[in-house]
Design brief:
alpha+beta, 40% helix, 15% strand, globular
Length: 356
Amino acid sequence: MTATLGLRELNRATLARQLLLERAGLDVRAALQQVGGLQAQTTQSWYVGLWSRLATYVPDATSRLLAAGQIVRMALMRSTIHLVTADDARWLRPLVEPVIVRSTMSAFGRVIGDIDREELTALSRTALAGHPMTCTELGRHLASRWPGRDPAALGQAARAWLPLVQSPPRGLWNRSGKAAHHVLPGELAHAPVDDLVLRYLGAFGPATVLDCRQWSGLTRLSEVFDRLPLRRFRDEAGRRLYDLPDAPRPDPETPAPVRFLYDFDNLLLSHDDRRRVLGDADYATQGFGGGSMEQPRSVLVDGFVAATWRQHQGHLTVHPFRRLTSPEKTDIEAEGAALLAFLAPEAAPRIDILPV
């Protein structure tokens, strides 16, 4: 008989794999591999995702890895910018390329039309070998070969057909820079899609096929799940869940500490059914609508989203969705003080927990 996993069991399993039950003593590269990368289209907020997951986290060390090209920010899953190791980027990028091409062609396909892919990518590689360019700059350069075509569409075609990495200083801790790109160095690796499914389950399982599709953007994954040697479960709605045989599935009553999440934390974006972290309440009115270009910054209390937060210099404002107990408020204040020490160490800290 197939075992059924309740909401709290799914919650604790996912939190454990996302390093949110206990801060891990991993280095940044190992942590990124464990959590399946971090969504990182914002240039700075994802640093909070690492701070919330790692013990004794120092952001300057992450900046050095990014500057050295050992970790990279580039379009991957769901055609969104993710932070991953360079080694992972080389095998993930070919697997999710159909997703990136599909989204690009849906927007620019009519303009790109019959442009030869090999010629465009060759010209783009030559141009980017000289110095990094934004997609707009690259598109203007390519328009000299295809006059009359929209430069923005040409730049986006290059982004879809080439593994382009956002170049530092953009993304470095407390630094800024334009969204210039270079080609990911090294040879791409052609891994089976099985590897992507296994990486997903190790980071977000137990999960359904639709959950993996939500994370990756890939379709036709059912046959991959069915052929892999995975554990099978059901959730309380009867949906089939898959998991790695030896992955952690903690007791549902395992304590879950307060954690502050950044705005595009993959914990909130990587399942078709997000109740495992949002709970049973309807949080769409709080901004968790799924397709929005902006997402709230969340606070986990007992493993589930219970509030949102904002920070300006040394002032942290927490907006709860439900009545908090005194111990929960104390825990939020303690974790919030640590967050302020990380984000604004020079400012005088102030924490306000607003009424429901």
